[in-house]
Amino acid sequence: MRITSLFRSRLLCSSISLLIVVVFATLSTDAAPKRRTAKSKKARIVKKTRKPVSEPVTSCSLATMPPPSMSEAVIAAAPPVEPVIHKTPPPLKPAEKAPAVNTPEPEAATKEVVYDTEEWERRLKESERALLAAPVRADANWLAEWRNAPQPHIERVWYTACYTDKDTLTCENFSKLLILNFPDSSYFVTASKFVIRYGQDRCWQDFQKALKDYYGAAPNVAKLNQLFLAGEPLMHMPYVLAQITLAGIGFAMADELRDVKTVDLVKGYLERAFRVFAPVETIGRQLSQAEWSTYRRSILSSGNQFLGYCALNKDRNPDLALIYLARAIAVKGDNNLGWKDPLNYYLRTNANNEFYARASKKYGDLSQEQRGGETGKALLAEIQNYMQRLMDDYARILVVTQTNRPEFQAYRDYAESSLRTLLRQKPNHEVAYQDLIKRIQAEFAA
Question: Domain limits of the chain?
Answer without folding.
Answer: 2-445
